[in-house]
Amino acid sequence: MTVAVEKPEKTEAAEPATAPAKGARKVSRPMVIGAILVVWLVLFALLRGKQTLSLAVADLTDLHRWINDFNDSIGANRNSNPLFLYFFNEIRLVIDNLVTFVQHLISQPSGARPVPEIGWLGVVGLAGFVSWAVGNWKVALLAVAGFTFFGLQGLWQESMDTLALILCAVFVALLFAIPLGVAAGLSDRFNRLMTPFLDFMQTMPTFVYLAPLTLFFLIGGASATIATVIYAAPPTIRITAHAIRNVSKTTVEAADSLGATRRQSLLKVLLPMSKRTVVMGVNQTIMAALAMVTIAALINAPGLGVNVLQALQSLDVGTAFNAGLAIVIMAIVLDRVTTAASAREEHARNSRNRFEKWRRPLLGAGAVVTAVLIYLSHTYLWAADFPGDGTVGTRIASATDTAANWVQDNLSGLTNAFRDAITNGLLNPFQTLLTDSPWWLVGAVLVALAVVLGGWKAGITTAACVGLLVATGVWSDAMTTMASTLVATVLVMILGIVFGVWMGRSMMADRMIRPTLDAAQVMPPFVYLVPFLALFGATRFTAIVAAIVYGAPVAMKIIADGIRAVPETTVEAATSAGCNTWQIITKVQLPMSRSALTLATNQGLIYVLSMVVVGGLVGAGALGYDVVAGFSQNELYGKGLAAGLAIVLLGVMFDRITQAAARRASA
Amino acid sequence: MARHWQAGAAGLAVLGLTLTACGGAKVGDSSSAGSGSSGKCGTFNLAVNPWVGYEADAAVVAYVAQHNLGCTVTKKNLKEQIAWQGFGTGEVDAVLENWGHADLVKKYIDGQKTAVDAGQTGNKGLIGWYVPPWLAKAHPDILQWKNLNKYASQFKTSESSGKGQLLDGDPSYVTNDAALVKNLKLNFKVVYAGSEAALITAFRDAEKNKKWVIGYFYEPQWFLSEVPLKKVSLPAYKTGCDTDAAKVACDYPIYNLNKIVSAKFAKSGSPAYDLVKNFNWTNDDQNEVAKYIAQDKLSDDAAAKKWVEANKDKVDAWIK
Questions:
Q1: Nearest CB to A379: which of B26, B158, B205?
Q2: Under an 8 A CB cutoff, do A58 and B245 touch?
Q3: Which residues lie within the region annotated Disordered (chain A) (predicted)?
Q4: pLDDT (tens digit, 9 = 90+) per residue, A191-205?
Q5: What is the per-residue pLDDT across A378-410, written as a single tens digit (0 to 9) for each?
Q6: Mean of the per-residue pLDDT values for chain A?
Q7: What average pLDDT score do residues A299-313 get?
Q8: Which of A457, A373, A494 is nearest to A118 (CA)?
Q9: Inside any domain, residue A276
């Protein structure tokens, strides 16, 4: 789940706390948790290895076989089924045409032309102009520099293919997401109905539905776009709903009392007032779409993802990094431009400076220049094909290779010691405890912890999730995955607190670290898997490290924001009372940003969980491997789907428990 | 101040217009031949499964189809399962290197009848357990499966819970390893690395740093020309010894890799079909092209060109 930060606010925080309060209040919460753990350990010692529901790698349950048969029957009836003929095929046609249109515009040869309609010069000009128009001149410069860099890397066409796909996917996603988000913002009922679907869309591993998608929408642009839309739409829906909900009640009431109809108050009050936040949602959707670039390449979507995957086949880290870098740059450009756009929304409403008067004529002039550039790039070869042969890219690739080799040669002794310490000291005992306990014991412990941490409601959700996990038939694998996930989350939180506090206290550190964090979040994991494999071998630990690289940045950012939000005066008061830095951090800043800490745990967990499948590619086994195997082997499809469902269930369970705990923390 | 901006913008526009006048080569000026002349072949949709050996097959076939037959070749990067699924939907014409895949054969060739066998590629696929060369040299007896238990403790890792580790790779490939370990009573645990990259990295590291690694591998594979892994012999394969997956106690058979085409494509009379049907080469041929791609880092097209130009007689036999 991308940063769909549903801030833990209002809701009935007090209600669950009061119900069990009578008896429970006397003993403190940590003591109850301790007692639960002790009971677990005792029962584990007695019942070890019984009713563990383990299932061998190649074994299937009836549910898995049933899913296989169902999948096969869809495939067999594809050409005669009216649902396919008149529904899916129509959708496919529309989206396919859209994708082909954009591709012909900027990336693929169109018709008799050997080059796309708009060449590099036109695209660079257009990118600069649009960034300037919606943002400011700084991001315009960034956009021009970034886009030119793609060409210098020797990846112009691939980058444009990726951009075309992203644009289409984001366009289609917004077409659905904004209306749905508005609806969810207006109606609590609809919001409750949507939430499980959104969870599902964000945590279900793409590998699971990639093969069926190509069955429904064929191989090509349409399938890739739809896969991207499924993953990328939820942030906009969630954030739009959040934005609509947060427009102050009094403003809406004022509009109502002036006699505005429902429609008027939506169009004239709610939407304009939540515009800024909605743009942030669009930003998140773009980032999520970029995260799908390599996955989409698995079903033949052209673009940078293909370079990454192909380089991986021959373990060519340098080439993969070069393509990954282009993705990172595209992400940074798009992120900064949309952020600037949302800042402009805010700015434009609040101030009217002298410069605003000249904005219109300047925009007009800019448009003329852009039109000329587009015309040039349409007509002349030098402006259509990016000149040069991408020597910068070759140099980046070889420098990366050198660096990766150096790290592998010089650090592997050190890293192995660290790996063994974590694996033997933390991961193995914990995993044994989870997988070798009877399933009902683990289930009971989970429900009890959920009740203590988050209240009865969280307990009920957890009970349902445990039941469904058992039903998926991959209980034992789910426990193995849970062990790795929780260990990874603990490490994420340690890093998150250390760096988050540092960043929160020093603007300088923040400015230096943040770009690295952005890069870590959007760099396709496939790029750094090979060096990690060389350092740590094909182990669960490698998977944990990959998950940390992806999950820690979110935790760091959230904690940094939390620390910064602690009122200056409080810190000053503590300083004047004679507290030293360590005391200020541990006694003032961290306790006061408790809700940020729980939120960081929530997001950290969800991010770590979204790397389970990647972990399956580097030796984590369990659910991640099941999903990958299901994607590769026809007979294991059903099991892969079940494993995917198990990942969703783990996600929902963790999410509900930590959210409920966060509400308590802030209450 | 702002007036300057406006003037500047106008100036830029004028500059742009002037540039238009003096120009340079125009799009469509230069004889953009090559496209257009597709002849009777038309479009040829070639699936490219994700391993370098296959990439080599596809590179050469695509090159010949394009340059000798005038086809428009569309390569599609797909995993096996999706590629086969594409036969039915008409999105894939040919798969060039099939490793058995009994389940897919049953589903698409026997069941839906959307695909047909187009003969062997000439490549022999070997699957088995391999060790790095240094290990085979230091302990030559390790190449017999009976001696594996003797060394099991050396293969222990953080993942193998006290037993020796047998590393498996990409789940796409046929594997009986778990059953083999059990039925041969080996003190090993199969650890699923999950990808080919993970396997290769493990073997590369093992050879370089003299580590103990035994794992599932296969040939033809480009990596073997970098590190010539040694195959461990398992109890010999006899026909039928692998019918019951749970009771397998014998080596993997030698796979005669074959080509699969869509039923429609086979009847289309396209010259590309004849090319696919006649396409046949040896493991050494494939390894050579794979080496150009993986180690010399040539593009697919350049690698294919280099091989095709050096092997005119072989290519001529495919398109006669």
A1: B26
A2: yes
A3: 1-20
A4: 889 888 988 888 888
A5: 888 787 788 877 788 888 888 988 888 888 888
A6: 84
A7: 87
A8: A373
A9: yes
Most B-contacting residue of A379, A407, A476 (CB-CB within 10 A), to test interface = A379
pLDDT at B24: 63
Question: Which residue of A137, A617, A631 to mutate against B (max B Cβ within 10 Å)?
Answer: A617
pLDDT for A462 beyond 90? yes
Mutation for testing the A interface, residue in B192, B227, B248 having most A CBs under 10 Å? B192
* Most confident among A15-19, A52-56, A442-446, B247-251 (mean pLDDT): A442-446
Could you report the per-residue pLDDT of A530-548, keeping only the tens digit for each? 888 888 888 889 899 999 9
Please state the domain count of chain B: 2
- For residue A116, name the pLDDT band (cuts at 50, 70, 90): confident
Task: Tell me what percent of the residues of chain B surpass a pLDDT of 90.
Answer: 22
Last residue of a domain, one of A365, A389, A413: A389
The residue of chain B with its CA nearest to that of A422 is B158
Whether residues A381 and B222 touch (CB distance < 8 A) is answered with no
Query: Is the same domain home to A118 and A240?
Result: yes
Q: Are residues A174 and A313 in the same domain?
A: yes
If phi > 0 it is left, if psi is from -120 to 50 it is alpha, else beta; for residue B42 that is left
Quote the minimal CA–CA distance from A532 to chain B in Å.
Answer: 10
B134-184 residue pLDDT tens:
999 999 999 998 888 989 888 988 888 788 899 987 777 777 888 888 888
Q: In this structure, is the dihedral angle defined by the CA atoms of residues B313, B317, B319 and B320, taken in order, positive or negative?
A: positive
What's the mean pLDDT in A556-562? 87
Which of chain B's residues have a Cβ under 8 Å away from the Cβ of A634? 81, 103-104, 107
Question: What is the per-residue pLDDT across B70-117, written as a single tens digit (0 to 9) for each?
Answer: 888 989 888 888 888 888 888 899 999 998 888 888 888 888 888 999
What is this model's ipTM?
A: 0.81
Contact A537 B157 (CB under 8 A): yes
Give dist(CA A292, CA A524) in Å, integer: 9
Q: Which CATH number does the domain housing residue A623 bear?
A: 1.10.3720.10
Residues of B in contact with A359 (CB under 8 A): none
Contacts of residue A361 in chain B, CB cutoff 8 Å?
A: 6
Do A480 and A622 belong to one domain? yes
CB A166 within 8 A of CB A289: yes
pLDDT > 80? residue A651: yes
Q: Report the residue from A112, A219, A313 with minimal CB separation from B50.
A: A313
> Which residues of chain A have a CB within 8 Å of the CB of B170?
632
Residue of B60 and B295 predicted with greater confidence? B60
Alpha carbons B95 and B115: distance in angstroms, whole number: 10
Chain B 195-254, CB below 8 Å of chain A: which residues? 195-202, 204-205, 209, 222, 245
B185 burial class (0-12, 13-18, 19+ CB within 10 angstroms)? exposed
Number of Cβ pairs < 8 A linking chain A and chain B: 218
Q: CB of B162 within 8 Å of any CB in chain A? A: no
Residue B78 one-letter amino acid: L
Residue A383 sits in the same domain as residue A524: no
User: What is the three-state SS of A461-513?
Assistant: HHHHHHHHHHHHCCHHHHHHHHHHHHHHHHHHHHHHHHHHHHHHHCHHHHHHH
Question: pLDDT at position B5, please?
Answer: 53
The range of the structural domain enclosing residue B207 comes to 125-247
CB neighbourhood size of B307 (10 A): 22
Res B245 pLDDT > 80: no
Is A407 in the same domain as A360?
no
Contact B27 A76 (CB under 8 A): no
| Owner of token pair 């549910």 | A63
What sections of A187-270 are H helices per DSSP?
Answer: 188-203, 206-217, 221-246, 249-257, 262-264
